[in-house]
Specification:
By secondary structure, this protein is an all-beta fold. The chain is about 0% helix and about 30% strand. About 20% of the residues are buried.
Length: about 70
Amino acid sequence: MEVKDSNGNLLNTGDSVTVIKSLKVKGLSTDIKRGQVVKNIRLTDNEHEIEGKVNGTLLVLKTEFLKKA
């Protein structure tokens, strides 16, 4: 299974990605701002999602809103 970011670059476990669009997250008091870096990502079973820590909270993010840093 190949996991790709919004630009078509391959993502691997441990990579860093940058958020390309501000995202509102249910249950969090703050938004994920455009340009925020998510380090040390983990791949999931779904090729369109990754796991990463944002402000100390583990979140599942869609790859369409990310680019490889």
